[in-house]
Design goal:
- There is one protein chain.
- This protein has one domain.
- The chain is built from two helices and two strands, in the order αββα.
- It is rod-shaped and about 65 Å long.
- 32% of the residues lie in helices and 19% in strands.
- The longest helix has 28 residues.
- The chain is of the alpha+beta class and 113 residues long.
- The protein binds zinc ion.
- Zinc ion (ZN) binds next to loops.
Amino acid sequence: MLELDSQPGIETLGLSLANGKAALAQLQARIVTRQVELMSASQRRCELCGLNRDLKDYHDVHYRSLFGGVVVRVPRWQRCACSPEFDTDSALCLSLATEPVGKGVGNPVPVAQ
Ligand SMILES: [Zn+2]
Protein backbone atom coordinates (compact mmCIF):
# COMPACT_ATOMS: atom_id res chain seq x y z
CA MET A 1 0.00 0.00 0.00
CA LEU A 2 1.23 3.46 -0.84
CA GLU A 3 1.99 5.96 1.90
CA LEU A 4 0.55 9.32 0.89
CA ASP A 5 1.74 12.62 2.26
CA SER A 6 -1.33 14.39 3.71
CA GLN A 7 0.43 17.76 3.69
CA PRO A 8 2.34 17.69 0.40
CA GLY A 9 4.39 20.54 -0.85
CA ILE A 10 4.37 21.39 -4.54
CA GLU A 11 7.50 19.26 -5.02
CA THR A 12 5.92 16.21 -3.33
CA LEU A 13 2.41 16.49 -4.78
CA GLY A 14 1.32 13.34 -6.59
CA LEU A 15 3.23 10.12 -7.02
CA SER A 16 6.97 9.99 -6.86
CA LEU A 17 8.75 7.90 -9.46
CA ALA A 18 9.41 5.23 -6.82
CA ASN A 19 5.75 5.21 -5.73
CA GLY A 20 4.63 5.03 -9.36
CA LYS A 21 6.85 2.04 -10.03
CA ALA A 22 5.65 0.33 -6.85
CA ALA A 23 2.01 0.96 -7.78
CA LEU A 24 2.54 -0.45 -11.28
CA ALA A 25 4.30 -3.52 -9.86
CA GLN A 26 1.37 -4.16 -7.51
CA LEU A 27 -1.17 -3.66 -10.28
CA GLN A 28 0.80 -5.92 -12.60
CA ALA A 29 0.92 -8.66 -9.96
CA ARG A 30 -2.85 -8.52 -9.51
CA ILE A 31 -3.53 -8.52 -13.26
CA VAL A 32 -1.14 -11.39 -13.98
CA THR A 33 -2.55 -13.40 -11.08
CA ARG A 34 -6.11 -12.89 -12.31
CA GLN A 35 -5.21 -13.72 -15.91
CA VAL A 36 -3.51 -16.92 -14.81
CA GLU A 37 -6.58 -17.85 -12.75
CA LEU A 38 -8.79 -17.35 -15.82
CA MET A 39 -6.45 -19.30 -18.11
CA SER A 40 -6.17 -22.12 -15.59
CA ALA A 41 -9.92 -22.33 -15.20
CA SER A 42 -10.36 -22.51 -18.98
CA GLN A 43 -7.94 -25.44 -19.16
CA ARG A 44 -9.67 -27.46 -16.46
CA ARG A 45 -12.45 -28.76 -18.66
CA CYS A 46 -11.61 -31.92 -20.65
CA GLU A 47 -11.70 -31.12 -24.36
CA LEU A 48 -13.03 -34.58 -25.17
CA CYS A 49 -15.85 -35.22 -22.69
CA GLY A 50 -16.43 -31.75 -21.21
CA LEU A 51 -16.04 -32.77 -17.56
CA ASN A 52 -13.86 -30.83 -15.16
CA ARG A 53 -10.59 -32.55 -14.34
CA ASP A 54 -9.46 -32.95 -10.73
CA LEU A 55 -6.69 -30.86 -9.23
CA LYS A 56 -3.29 -32.55 -9.37
CA ASP A 57 -1.19 -29.96 -7.53
CA TYR A 58 0.04 -26.41 -7.75
CA HIS A 59 3.23 -25.00 -9.23
CA ASP A 60 4.76 -21.64 -8.47
CA VAL A 61 5.63 -19.94 -11.74
CA HIS A 62 8.05 -17.02 -11.67
CA TYR A 63 6.98 -14.63 -14.40
CA ARG A 64 9.24 -11.72 -15.27
CA SER A 65 7.20 -8.80 -16.57
CA LEU A 66 8.00 -5.30 -17.71
CA PHE A 67 7.01 -4.00 -14.26
CA GLY A 68 8.76 -6.59 -12.15
CA GLY A 69 8.65 -10.25 -11.27
CA VAL A 70 5.43 -11.95 -10.33
CA VAL A 71 5.12 -15.34 -8.69
CA VAL A 72 1.83 -17.02 -9.54
CA ARG A 73 0.43 -20.23 -8.15
CA VAL A 74 -0.70 -22.30 -11.12
CA PRO A 75 -2.89 -25.36 -10.69
CA ARG A 76 -2.15 -28.50 -12.66
CA TRP A 77 -5.08 -30.68 -13.58
CA GLN A 78 -5.24 -34.48 -13.57
CA ARG A 79 -5.64 -36.32 -16.81
CA CYS A 80 -9.25 -37.05 -17.52
CA ALA A 81 -10.37 -40.63 -17.04
CA CYS A 82 -11.85 -40.64 -20.55
CA SER A 83 -8.46 -40.13 -22.16
CA PRO A 84 -5.47 -41.43 -20.20
CA GLU A 85 -3.09 -40.51 -23.01
CA PHE A 86 -4.38 -36.96 -23.32
CA ASP A 87 -2.03 -34.93 -21.14
CA THR A 88 -2.41 -31.16 -20.92
CA ASP A 89 -2.08 -30.83 -17.18
CA SER A 90 1.04 -28.71 -17.34
CA ALA A 91 0.37 -26.83 -20.58
CA LEU A 92 -0.16 -23.51 -18.80
CA CYS A 93 3.00 -23.91 -16.72
CA LEU A 94 4.98 -24.65 -19.85
CA SER A 95 3.53 -21.75 -21.81
CA LEU A 96 4.25 -19.29 -18.99
CA ALA A 97 7.76 -20.60 -18.50
CA THR A 98 8.63 -20.17 -22.19
CA GLU A 99 7.20 -16.68 -22.74
CA PRO A 100 9.87 -14.04 -23.40
CA VAL A 101 10.37 -11.37 -20.75
CA GLY A 102 7.81 -8.60 -20.99
CA LYS A 103 5.71 -10.26 -23.67
CA GLY A 104 2.87 -11.09 -21.30
CA VAL A 105 1.07 -14.31 -20.57
CA GLY A 106 -0.65 -14.93 -23.86
CA ASN A 107 -3.75 -13.45 -25.35
CA PRO A 108 -5.33 -10.68 -23.30
CA VAL A 109 -7.98 -11.93 -20.92
CA PRO A 110 -10.54 -9.48 -19.54
CA VAL A 111 -10.18 -8.88 -15.83
CA ALA A 112 -13.41 -9.51 -13.93
CA GLN A 113 -14.72 -6.58 -11.96
ZN1 LIG B 1 -12.66 -36.35 -20.49
